[in-house]
Amino acid sequence: MYDFAPDRDLPKPELYRDVLSAADALTSGEPDGVANMANLAALIWQLVPDLNWAGFYRMVGGELVLGPFCGKPACIRIPLGQGVCGTAAASGQTQRVPDVHAFPGHIACDAASRSELVVPVIRAGEVISVIDLDSPLPARFDAEDQTAFEALAALIADRI
Ligand code: SME
Fold it and tell me: How many domains are there within the chain?
C-alpha cells in the first residue's frame, strides 16, 4: 500500500512538492511505463483538487492514443493538431485553457469540463505523451499549476 497522506488543502508550493516527491518515489526504478502512468494518474487524482479527469495520451503511430487515466471513459484517438491535447502534442507547448468552450476544436470527452491543462512529455526532443488535466471549474489552472506539471513531465519523461 502507498499512503501519501493527502492533504488537498495544502498551499500549492507544498502540495506540488509532495506530488513531485511522491511521483519520484512511485516511479523510481520501475521500468514499466504503463504501470508508472497508471500510478501517476491515480496520484494526481488523489492529491490535486478540483479535477474531473487526469491522465495520459501517448504518441502512437503519429497520433495520440488514450493511456492510463482517472475519470470518465474518454475518446481513444486524437489526431495531432486537433483539440487541446493534439495542439499540445503538435506544438510541444503546454496548453493552459481557462475556458474550453472558447478553444477552437476542443474535444469534449466529459461535458463537465470547463478548463484544461495539457503538458507535453518530451524525451530526446520528441513528444512521447501528454499529461491531460480537466477541471469542472473555469480557469482552474494558473501558472503555478503549469510550472508544477511541466516539472512532473520532465521528471517522468524517461519513466513512461
Ligand atoms: N479535451 C481534450 C480531449 C481529451 S479529454 O479532455 C479527456 C482535447 O480537447 O484534446
Answer: 1
- Show the DSSP H helices in the chain as ranges: 12-27, 33-47, 83-91, 143-156
Q: If DSSP codes are grouped into helix, strand and coil, which group holds residue 88?
A: helix
Domain that holds residue 64: 12-156
Q: Domain for residue 6, yes or no?
A: no
Q: Is residue 113 part of a domain?
A: yes
pTM: 0.96
Instruction: Assess contact for 18 and 2: CB atoms under 8 A.
Output: no
152 alpha carbon, distance to own chain's centre: 9
- Mutation to probe ligand 1, out of 134, 135, 140, 141 (largest number of atoms < 8 A from CB): 134
- Most ligand 1 atoms within 8 A of CB, residue of 84, 103, 119 to mutate: 84
CATH number of the CATH domain containing 48:
3.30.450.40
The Cα–Cα gap between 34 and 140 comes to 27
* Any domain includes 134: yes
Summarize pLDDT for 66-97 with one digit per residue, the tens: 999 999 999 999 999 999 999 999 999 999 99
